[in-house]
Please model this.
Amino acid sequence: MRRVITYGTFDLLHYGHINLLRRCKALGDYLIVALSTDEFNWNDKHKKTYFSFEQRKQLLESIRYVDLVIPEENWNQKKSDMHEYHINTFAMGDDWKGEFDFLKDEGVEVTYLSRTPEISSSKIKKDLYDANEVDGESQINHDDLDTNPN
Model:
């Protein structure tokens, strides 16, 4: 059985995510998604997610291409994940091209897949933010938002 793994936050799930997951699954028989935890997103990536880890996990588990969702708690777990989950192929979006080539030393194939160009969670957030502007000022002050996941 060929095992494939990918990593990500998968917040504001959209068709670009589905395209990535479909293409990852096509690389093998079993797809594992390492989903960034709320704490990892906040403390290390400096990102606030809209949906909690458990909500994002539930969404991913409902997608037919995904066989297993595991938590991604830090940048350094990738090497150990390759061995613990007996991974054959590591796949990421091509915006990370070259960043994970070191995993080839762990005996896995590293593949970078092209992104769906017209969509991203960042674009959705920006478009929604811009749509809420009136006379050049947002109706919501970002500094007033509670962005602490705890």
The CA atoms of residues 132 and 140 lie 8 Å apart. The longest strand covers residues 30-36.
